[in-house]
Write a structure and sequence with these properties.
Strand content: 15-25%
Number of strands: 23
Oligomer: single chain
Low-confidence stretches: 1-52
Shape: globular
């Protein structure tokens, strides 16, 4: 499977992060030092699951290396952090922003100011009030904290006024994406009192979400209990959660069979075994997309003919068949086909055509074997081997280079050729700018951007989400971004899970795991 390193700023999402090491696995590798000194919440006392209660036993491939949402909230582990933290908004099954901590919001007439009105009477698990001051603190910390993974996501927010339960966001531009943006992934809100010491918060999370951490063994296990003060506690029917870092993929199914777990992230290679074991195997909708990243500021990618040759050399179906065991889909965009931002007019613009790829290389003056590339990745990866094989078929020699510190040159835009995979974002504009914008973290060719992209994205920001023109305007921006020579999208892998029959079905919220209404046998 491909290296979707879950702690990187844009948000990534694959199990080989455990093998890849990169960032998340580094935290796991040192976690066992802390096994004998678990960090307990202020509550203390017995931290085992409640006797006779409904306990979710979740084996997670993305156990957080950090529990400070400012540090960790942009990666795939935001799903686990959502056990503890709530946000201003969240997304429903249509992917639209709906109330969470904020019960309503309203823009001014111009669209450059938005007021979020918070639910009254809420408090964090340390007793501090959930009010506009907490929102202001969370946004300012996300923008200013040195190790924040979110600062690049909040550029439209100029300042925040806190007026009791009203958080007034002054924007640097008209931007109707804010309710989509400030959801579960980008602004999970921590107690300002606890966040005064970010390092302590990182291992003693304090939020206003559906559960409260009672024990945390860094990198290994967290024990949580239902938060009676959560605003929607009446619809949370799980009493306790035991979140464990998933073992090797091959042992997850047996753990589910024996009751060690009753819910787990599932590697596609284990899907058939899980089904044969009588487990419920299902996919949650998502925005996952993998790509080949090119730096057009470096040879040979400064020649459009070479870039187009690579586009035609890619057989996307091979990625799906070999890496997702048929559970994924081919993609040439950062959005799934059923999503509002997907542009049908751009579909299959560069179909698999190795003969055309060879001709383009010849037109550019390159004979077979002339072009030699180093593909730099963080760990061994079958995806890289597929790229190597497909490019060899058109006369390009690829040498795979492993660099465990790959993130540093990637985000510094020093690499010429690499791979990347993301989970996307709730705001489609944020996904677009991350990939195609001149300062986008996923744009290896910074400061390059395709002609017309900035204007197209600006038009989307100025279009209200409920406008009849929104879908068409958004798809035009996607079309503009896909003119970029910096990325070649390949495939989308599923958000695949397995659970015991004890656990009821989950809401189908895109990219999220929502425990609202979920029951376990024996729960209330």
């Amino acid at each position: 499977m491909s290296p979707r390193l879950t702690t990187l700023r844009p948000g990534l999402n694959t199990r080989t992060a455990r093998r890849a090491g990169g960032l998340r696995a580094a935290a796991l590798g040192t976690a066992f030092v802390a096994l004998l000194t678990p960090a307990l919440s202020a509550c203390g006392g017995d931290v085992s699951a409640s006797a006779g209660g409904a306990t979710l036993k979740w084996a997670s491939s993305y156990f957080p290396g950090h529990w400070d949402p400012v540090v960790s909230g942009s990666g795939a582990q935001f799903r686990e952090l959502a056990l503890v933290y709530a946000s201003l908004t969240r997304t429903d099954e249509d992917g639209k922003a709906v109330p969470d901590l904020a019960e309503s919001w309203k823009y001014n007439a111009h669209g450059d100011l938005i007021t979020f009105h918070l639910r009254p009477g809420l408090k964090f698990s340390d007793g501090e009030p959930v009010d506009a001051a907490a929102v202001k603190s969370a946004i300012e910390r996300a923008k200013k904290q040195k190790n924040s993974a979110l600062f690049g996501d909040l550029t439209s927010i100029k300042s925040v006024d806190a007026n009791g339960l009203d958080a007034v966001l002054h924007l640097s531009q008209v931007d109707y994406q804010i309710p989509q943006l400030l959801g579960e992934r980008v602004l999970q809100i921590a107690s300002p009192k606890a966040a005064k010491d970010p390092a302590k918060l990182d291992q003693n999370p304090v939020g206003a979400g559906p559960f409260i951490v009672k024990q945390l063994i860094p990198g290994t296990k967290a024990v949580l209990r239902r938060n009676p003060d959560y605003w929607d506690a009446k619809n949370i029917h799980i009493d306790d959660v035991e979140l464990s870092s998933a073992p090797d993929a091959s042992t997850v199914v047996s753990g589910l069979q024996t009751g060690v777990y009753n819910f787990a992230d599932l590697d596609p290679s284990q899907a058939d075994a899980a089904k044969k074991a009588g487990l419920d195997v299902f996919s949650q909708p998502g925005f996952n997309a993998s790509n080949i990243s090119l730096n057009i500021n470096k040879a040979p990618f400064d020649d459009d003919r070479v870039v187009d040759a690579l586009r035609y050399a890619v057989n996307r179906q091979e990625f799906v068949d070999k890496l997702t065991f048929g559970h994924g889909e081919v993609t040439d965009q950062p959005f799934p086909k059923e999503y509002v931002a997907y542009d049908p007019k751009s579909e299959n613009s560069y179909p698999y055509d190795p003969a055309k790829a060879k001709q383009l290389l010849a037109d550019a003056g390159h004979k077979a074997g002339d072009i030699k590339l180093n593909l730099v990745i963080p760990a061994e990866d079958p995806q890289a081997e597929i790229v190597q094989s497909q490019l060899a078929a058109v006369g390009i020699t690829v040498t795979i280079k492993i660099d465990k510190n790959w993130a540093t040159p990637f985000f510094a835009k020093d690499l010429a050729f690499s791979l990347y995979s993301t989970t996307g974002r709730d705001s489609a504009v944020q996904t677009l700018t991350a990939h195609f914008g001149p300062n986008g973290p996923l744009n290896l060719s910074t400061p390059y951007e395709p002609d017309g992209f900035e204007a197209a994205v600006g038009k989307v920001r100025r279009t209200p989400l409920d406008s009849p023109q929104y879908a068409e305007t958004l798809q035009e921006a996607t079309r503009s971004g896909l003119k970029s020579k910096a990325l070649i999208f390949t495939y989308s892998s599923p958000n695949l899970f397995a659970k015991s029959k004890q656990v009821s079905g989950l809401p189908k919220n895109p990219a999220h795991i929502d425990w609202t209404g979920v029951t376990l046998s024996g729960s209330n």
